[in-house]
Amino acid sequence: MSQPSATEDVWVQLFALLAVVSGVLSAHSYWQRSLPGPAAPAEVPISVSAEALQPAAPPAAAPPAASSVSAPRTAGRWVVDSRMSADADCASLGAAVAGARDGDVIVLRPGTYEEGVQVSKSLTISGAGVSPDQVVLTHSGPKTLAISGGRVTLENLSLANTGLRSYWVLSLAMGRLTMRNVRFRSAGQGMLVVDGDLDASDCDLDGRTALSVSGKSRVRLVHDTLSGEEAAVSADGGGVDLSIEGSRIQDSRGLGLEASRFALVRMNDVTLSGNVSAAVSIASGAEVRITQAKIVDNRDCGVRIDGGAKVFLEQAQLERDRCGVGFVGLGTLEARNSRFSELALGAVAVKPGLESSVSIRGSGNVGLKIPGQ
Questions:
Q1: Is 307 helix (H, G, I), strand (E, B) or coil?
Q2: How far is residue 187's CA from residue 123's CA, in Å, rounded to a whole number?
Q3: β-pairing verdict for 111-114 and 135-139
Q4: In DSSP terms, which residues pair with 263 in a beta bridge?
Q5: How far apart are CA 101 and CA 76, in angstroms?
Q6: Do the beta carbons of residue 91 and residue 80 sit within 8 Å?
Q7: Phi and psi (nearest 5°) for 74?
Q8: Which fold has domain 121-363?
Q9: What are the extents of the domains in the chain?
Q10: 6-62 pLDDT per residue, tens
Q11: Between 122 and which of 84, 150, 348, 360 could a Cys-Cys bridge form, CB atoms 3.0 to 4.6 Å apart?
């Protein structure tokens, strides 16, 4: 066999080199195709609801400040300032009440707080002003302050309500409240006590009815001033035990004190004056005991009795009223060591036809004639 020429040998080597390069390229292509890669997205049918085409809902509102108040700077003492000064714990009374524990004290810096607040804890809420007028809690809703349960103390502040005539400044139910140096002003009602326990001293209460007490309630008023559009004080029901000492019930556009349905009221060293209707109106089996009181300058009778009610006067002074005691229905008057003078219709006025149905007794009086004596 003949040997290849040099030319043929070159071509053989060239073709061999091309074969090697082609094999390498083919292997690389295969390797790339065999590597796992990102899966192609599956084709999913698209269905768009009408709701999805609506604008996105706005983000939820931030929770109220109360939820972010974990503890006051001083344990057990909350400082409230509507301007949120550097040392304040919160800007509203509601936030402080929400964060407080039983026994805590809440101090309100001077200012006006427009909010309705509910309290069911044992707390002391105190105004930090020089006078009650410098700290005002006001609201236009049904109740400015509602207390249900617990033992609460209010001191040195004012409460107001600018809402409807049926709305209350303060309500107390199933709890105990102590008020010191507190003032009420209301376009509607004043304070409602139902099955509650109230001690109020040095307070000034005004409203359509300044104070209404019913249910099983014990109320003690000391050195207070009360007036109202319809009545300064209303006591209704056999579970009511109301004591008023050293106080003034005055300038009411209606009745001074109204007691009915077997309520028990005791008044000592009280002045009832300037009331448009009777200073004291007693009906439906209620009982009122009045000691060392001045019942003067009222446009109607000092005391009006109806429905089998009873009134006891001891060292009382009844002057310049329309009459001392007026009977418009059945009832009982017992007067001792009391004085009746300058009364247009006399010490006692009895509705015609009831003369033999009323009971009047007593001794040591001036200006009062007791039948049979």
A1: coil
A2: 27
A3: parallel
A4: none
A5: 8
A6: yes
A7: -110, 125
A8: Pectate Lyase C-like (2.160.20)
A9: 121-363
A10: 444 544 454 444 444 444 344 444 334 443 444 444 443 433 343 333 444 444 333
A11: 150
